[in-house]
Amino acid sequence: MTRTFREAFQDALKATGWSINKVAAEAGVSAEQLKKLNQGRSQSTNVDDALKVAHVFGVTLDEFLGDDTAQLRAEVADLWRQLSQEERDILLAAARGRGAQDRGAKP
């Protein structure tokens, strides 16, 4: 399902709970431009800024616009940023061990 950039942006904001100012600062784009987009005074943005915004949410622009998993990935990226390095290491080790088990190898 392809969405407008505005729809994708609003969905990603809801999924992460991030503010427009936070996204703008991390992406290096105009907060005012993103506010206009969110309020419906604009439906899209330029490609360079769209790429930057999608990247902040941890997805490609294609994923951001056309794939519902983009919301999930944005949420995962937000949760990942909240973890300590030790917690990240534990999760990575567990995921790698699970992947090895799925392939029939010993972790």
Automatic annotation (TrEMBL):
The residue ranges of the HTH cro/C1-type domain are 9-64
PROSITE patterns named in the record:
HTH_CROC1
Know the name of this protein? Helix-turn-helix transcriptional regulator
Pfam families associated with the record: HTH_3
Per the record, the domain of life is Bacteria
Give one GO molecular function term: DNA binding
- Extract the InterPro entries matched here: Cro/C1-type_HTH, Lambda_DNA-bd_dom_sf
Q: What's the source species for this entry?
A: Fuscibacter oryzae
Q: Which SUPFAM superfamilies match?
A: lambda repressor-like DNA-binding domains
